[in-house]
Amino acid sequence: MKQVLEVLKEQFKYAPMIFRIARYEDKATYQSHYLGLAWQILNPLIQVAIYYFVFGFAMRGKSGVAGASYIEWMLAGIIPWFFISAVILQGANSIFNKIHLVSKMKFPMSVMPSITIVSNLTSYITMMVIFFGLLFIKGAPVSMYWAQFFYYFVAMLVFLFSITLLNATISVLVRDYYVMLQSVMRVLFYVSGVVWNLNTMLPAWVVDLLKLNPIVYILEGFRDSFVGHKGFWQEPSYTVYFWLITLVCLYVGSVLHMKFRERFVDYL
Q: The domain containing residue 245 runs over which residues?
């Protein structure tokens, strides 16, 4: 538990620096592009268009949720998926790729996952603004369940920090892990119900098995908030399971990180 508290303390202590580095990385990544940071929005929009034309027509524009069109249902899940996928893959390599910064600047390596999360927030927030605009254009009724967005947003950030800290540490120790993680994320795209409704297309026991993936909890949570009108308190056991998995990842990631971070350079 001591390691967890130390890691969390470092995030708060170095929060201003986390935001500064994240902002610098955003500008550096796209500085040689004519459209610059606009690509943070254009890339996901292009992918959304492709998935909608491929899967939207296959679903005949129906989401399987009463009162919700396929585009509304898909955006409610695919926008957080883009954010989650980008953070997990980039975050897993965050320590490995930025180890040179630590030698030049005095800050703990535990902040690397947080930098990755913050640097991807711009694209996520902008896509959510577009999603809200679509909901208002289509005349979607504002519901009290929309307030759940803040709960699921915090849950997503805590989960991402926990899993990314763990992945980033293991990726330094075992380089094959990152390659395997890339393949796993490709599979998770399809088995997490990002573009198709698990509940209407699979047997109940298969859905229950796939819901062991905590990412499904987050995606379904956002959809329940905006198109499903279902509260997280209606499935207390599932909520407890998600937080147990998240806290276990945080604990294991913190312990491993604190144990090996003084020797990361040796592994590289």
A: 1-22+32-57+65-266
